[in-house]
Amino acid sequence: MCGGFTCSKNALIALNVLYVVVASILISVAVYGQASSLVTNLPIVGGILACGVFLILISLLGLAGAVRHHQVMLFFYMVILFLLFLVQFSVACACLAVNSDQQEMLAQQGWNKVDMDVKEEVQERFKCCGFQDRSIPANGTADYPSCDIVDRVCCQNMVITPHCQCDPCMETLKERIDNAFKLCGGIGLFFSFTEFLGVWLTVRYRNQKDPRANPSAFL
User: Fold this and answer.
1) Which phi and psi angles does 3 have, rounded to 5°?
2) Phi, psi values for residue 34, rounded to 5°
3) What is the pLDDT of residues 77-128, one digit of tens each?
4) Claim: this prediction has a pTM higher than 0.70
5) At what angle do helices 116-126 and 169-206 cross, to 10 degrees?
6) What keywords are annotated for this sequence in UniProt (predicted)?
7) Residues 6 or more apart from 13 whose CB is under 8 A from it?
8) What's the pLDDT band for 136 if we cut at 50, 70, 90?
9) Residue 195's closest CA among 21, 55, 24?
């Protein structure tokens, strides 16, 4: 029956195969979040990426422990998976809790860290100029490259004037950054509960006796 040893074993194996798929989705979503902007600093999204990579490694341990019904491997798998659940759940909640002001602060930090070549690439890719505005600091040196090329693209068939200029990059990237946080947080939160299911199933499976095992063997 389904509550027996064989069913628990097959369910745990299937769940770990699912974890590999889930980890691939988390990695893909996190990579999209990092690539949604070339300059924004998204450390929380990086946490989702790390959870995805770690989940793949843990699922391999779980597969080996489930196939062999190895008590020690299953114990460490259970403990590490529960810790990963706590981390991923916390990071996912943090992604969903980040507001627009915090997103802008992270984006500003990323913009300040990169060099002019990357900023120029961002401006050309997203058809924007500067981060928040085109103001020039008191030292007379702008923190963004020339906008002549992108302005010509933004103002095709029009005369480039102060009224016809590319928008600041933050306005262009704001929606992308928000989507990256919400997507990573939502998927991370949803799949974190499957890890809790894995912990429960592992506890159940460890306490079941293999009918084909040697009764005198402990491991």
Assistant:
1) -85, 5
2) -70, -35
3) 999 989 988 988 888 898 888 888 888 887 777 777 777 887 888 788 888 8
4) no
5) 100
6) Membrane, Transmembrane, Transmembrane helix
7) 63, 66, 67
8) low
9) 55
